[in-house]
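During the reporting period the student researcher (J.K.) took over the structure-prediction task from the postdoctoral fellow and processed the backlog of single-chain submissions. One of the processed entries is reproduced below for the supervisory committee.
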Amino acid sequence: MYLLQKSLFSFESWLEIESSKRLELFFSALDLQLYAVKLESSSPQGSKPINR
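J.K. obtained the following structure tokens:
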């Protein structure tokens, strides 16, 4: 089975984006809410997040 996914950016527009902004644009286009919920629910009880 093959799935076709619409591209987020054309290659040309990707090259025009400032390199320091590429990761931010890429990850902002993804819906990671489901994964964040799963990570939060799988963390051990009483664990504290690391503040950096």
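The committee noted the following: The chain has a mean pLDDT of 78.
J.K. will present the remaining backlog at the next meeting.
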